[in-house]
Every structure is written in C-alpha cells, then in structure tokens.
Write a structure and sequence with these properties.
The chain is mainly beta. The chain has one domain (2-452): 6 Propeller (Neuraminidase), CATH 2.120.10.30. The chain is built from two helices and 27 strands. It has helices at residues 2-11, 150-153; strands at residues 37-43, 81-90, 93-98, 104-108, 112-117, 121-122, 135-136, 141-146, 155-163, 170-171, 181-190, 196-204, 215-219, 225-229, 259-263, 285-288, 293-298, 305-309, 316-321, 364-366, 372-377, 390-394, 399-405, 411-417, 425-430, 436-440, 445-452.
Length: 456
C-alpha cells in the first residue's frame, strides 16, 4: 500500500509504471557492456585574454586533478568505436547552450561566460555582462538556456549564486561553510558578439544558504521554466554543519531551498502552479524534497520533467516529477551521511527501500554513488541504437552512463562509457548534429564531443 501511495504522483506522468532500480556497475560488473574504442583528439587552445578571478585555494575533496590525456588514444573493443574530440582551457565548466549558428555558450563556475565556435575553437575573449557571482564550493555561475523564441528576442537565461551583501565573492573549499548566497534566475540579451546586454535578475530565491548547492534550469513545453535549487547540506564537509540553512529546508514550504520552482519567462508565478493559494507555501514551488538537482530536463517526447538528484553517501536518483510531488529529502533517503549516520526514516538493511506515504520514490537510483550530472534523452541520428535512451554524466564515477529504456519507457540495461578518460562529467547535451557534447568538471576542464568513430 505504501509503495502505491508514494508512486501515485509519478504514475500520472509515467503511465502507471513503478520505479526500477538500476544497480551500480561496481556492484554488478557482469552487466557492463564491452569497452568501446575511443579515438581522442585534443585540440589545444590559447589561454583566455581576460584575467580570470582567482581559483579556489583547494580542489574540493574527491574531484582529483585533470587527467585528460593529450594526443590520440585507441582503446579496442568488440562493441564498436567512439570518436572523442576535446576543447580544453575551460575552468570548471558547468553548462552549455547551442546558438543557431552552431556556436556554443558555456558557463564557467567562477563566473565567466565563454564561446566555443562550431569549429571547436575556444574564443579567448569572455562574454561581458555577467553579474558578480558567489564562487564558493560548488556555487557560482551554473546553468544556461536560450528562450524558446531566441531567434526573435535574443534572450539568454542563466542561474547563478548571488553573494550575501558584505561577504567575500571568492571562498576556498575550507571556508565554504561560511560563504552563503542565494540562487538567482537572470536574463540578458545576447548581441552575437561578446556582450550580454540588459542583464537583470528575474527571480532571487529566499534561501540564503551555505554548503554545496546546485541550480539548474529547463524550459517546459508551454514556455514556462523550471528552476531547481539545492538544499543546504549539513553533512557536506564529512560531518560538518552548515552555518546558514539546514537540510530540513527541503521540506519547508516557506523556503525555496531543496525545491523545483516553476516560473513564467519574466520571473512571475504561473497561476496554475500546484501551491498557489495554499497557506504557508511559496507560490513558485512546483515540487519539494530535493537534495541537490545536478541535472534537470524536459523529456522531448512526453514533456515530463526529469531531475537528477545528488544523494549523500549513496542514493543518487533520477526522478520524474509531477506537479506537487514530494521527493522526500531529508525525511527519507537511500543514502547515508558522510559520517555514516542514517539520513532519514525508513532506511536500513531490514528495509532497503524507504516507504513513507505521500513521498515519491525515485524512478532510478544508484548505490554506490555515481554523483549524477547533466542528462539528456537521446533523439538524434548519430547513435540510432540509443534513441530514447537516457544519457547521464557521472562526476565521482567519471563515466557517461547510458540507461536503455524499453518501449514503455522503463529502464532495462545500462552501459558505462568513457571511464578510461577518468573525467568528472558535469553536463551532457545533444548537439544539433546528433553528436553528444559533454563538459568536464576540472580546473582545466574541457568540452568533449562524442560521436561514432566513422562519423564524417
């Protein structure tokens, strides 16, 4: 009975299907497909002309150094071959958007907006007009999306973390617990060159939080946009306590932290939002109980909202989110805090699947962690066997994860790709050419273009 009540909100979006667990490849290596052949061609780029803000004093725990090899590398395997080209010289890239010209706008977490030309050349000059950002831990300049009518209005939307007045703009990993900021949705008009004009904040969240929190953005079919905001995590520094905000804010209807918001393209509130008129609830809220939304997309066929949620130690999730859904954090979780303590009721060896009435189960989950990043449902022609499949970046797993979905949309098997490159994959996008475009989360990060080896 409890499973049904928790799954009720997702069933309306996904034709009554129940969640399916996809185990981690480290737990079930027998399902991993054969290694693919990868040809890697690295294109060296000149350093950017503008003086960058200082980098964090210390790399966050677990991220490791950049290990992307130079030159050409061939890894043989019977399953086929992939060609991977890279553009290096990006500092902690977070997200990208394709312009009609084929050029790409790429956000860098320290607060720069860069251009990668369609020829895979990094423009050394950054785009001006980006507001001051809080660059601390994982906060900074995050997601980017073009307005659905960009060709007519030239509007670019992005999310970033605004520093609290009077606090330092830069903070290293050791001081992240004291650096607080608010997630912001902003908009500007791109002139086609190196200027973002008429930039202003459309929506400033009320969640002034410290710790590691993400912000993601996706336009819905109706022209409204979804914005995901992470909750402050008390366990982020291996048992530390956030100085501003707590994980419980994800369940607080008066807080924007740990929520998916739904807004009009001018930042106002759609009147058909699920909590409009509900006492005590912020009207912008579309769903609650989110931990850290590192991936957000609208399914290209169904129009459903999908979210990749970074769990604590274990319990990473992909969720299909209906209006008004509660995803459970921190009341219930499949993971544990970094100090080993349980993170919510209903979890334990005797009850491996949490069961709390009224809270939606994940569609897919991973334990051990993969630390999910951006994701896409593939619809292109370069990889015909992958059409309709989920492709998801892995940060701690340093892999591209492919989850095959059957004709009913249910997960079947999965494949781990690009693990030989040992790259933290922050974002995954499908290009207009059908190739896959990935961003790697390193101080000397890269844009990776993935296509079949025989592609011309």
């Amino acid at each position: 009975a409890c499973r049904g009540s928790r799954s009720a909100s997702i069933a309306s979006v996904f034709r009554g299907s129940r969640p399916v667990t996809v185990p981690s490849s480290t737990r079930h290596p027998h399902v991993v497909l054969a290694l693919l052949t990868v040809t890697l061609v690295v294109i060296s780029q000149a350093q950017q002309a503008l003086t960058p803000p200082p980098a964090p004093a210390r790399t966050p725990p677990g991220s490791g150094p950049d290990t992307l090899p130079g030159g050409e590398h061939i890894l043989s395997g019977p399953a086929g071959s992939l060609r991977v080209r890279s553009v290096k010289g990006l500092e902690r890239p977070w997200a990208l958007a394709f312009l009609p010209s084929g050029d790409m706008l790429v956000t860098e977490r320290p607060g720069r907006l860069r251009i990668v030309r369609r020829e895979l050349v990094l423009d050394p000059e950054a785009v001006r007009g980006v507001p001051e950002v809080l660059s601390a831990a994982y906060k900074g300049l995050h997601d980017i999306a073009l307005h659905p009518r960009f060709s007519d209005n030239r509007l670019v939307y992005f999310t970033y973390w605004k520093p609290r007045p009077g606090e330092a703009r830069e903070a290293n990993w050791n001081s992240l617990m004291g650096a607080s900021g608010a997630a912001v949705l902003a908009r500007g008009r791109y002139d086609g060159g190196h200027m973002l004009a008429d930039v202003h904040d459309l929506f400033v969240s009320n969640a002034w939080t410290s710790g590691a929190s993400a912000s993601r953005l996706a336009f819905g079919r109706d022209g409204t946009l979804f914005m995901g905001i992470g909750a402050p995590n008390r366990d982020i520094a291996h048992g530390g306590t956030a100085r501003v905000g707590t994980s419980e804010e994800a369940q607080d209807p008066a807080s924007h932290a740990g929520k998916i918001l739904r807004l009009n393209d001018d930042g106002s509130v759609p009147m058909d939002n699920p909590f409009v008129g509900h006492a005590g609830y912020r009207p912008e809220i579309y769903a609650l109980g989110i931990r850290n939304p590192l991936g957000l997309m609208v399914h290209p066929q169904t129009g459903a909202l999908w979210e990749a949620d970074h769990g604590p130690m274990g319990g990473d999730e992909v969720n299909i989110i209906a209006a008004g859904a509660n995803l459970g954090w921190p009341v219930v979780s499949l993971g544990r805090a970094y100090n080993g303590e349980a993170t919510g009721a209903g979890f334990g060896p005797e009850q491996p699947e949490p069961c709390v009435p009224g809270m939606t189960q994940p569609f897919i989950h991973w334990t051990p962690n993969i630390a999910p990043g951006g994701m896409v449902i593939y619809t292109g022609s370069r990889f015909p066997d992958w059409r309709g499949h989920l492709l998801l970046g892995g940060l701690s797993s340093t892999q591209l994860h492919r989850v095959a979905l059957n004709e009913r949309g249910l997960p079947q098997d999965r494949e781990s790709l690009l693990m030989e490159l040992k790259q933290r994959i922050r974002d995954v996008r499908q290009g207009p050419d059908g190739a896959l475009y990935l961003l790697t989360d390193h101080d000397d990060g890269a844009l990776l273009v993935v296509e079949p080896a025989d592609a011309r």
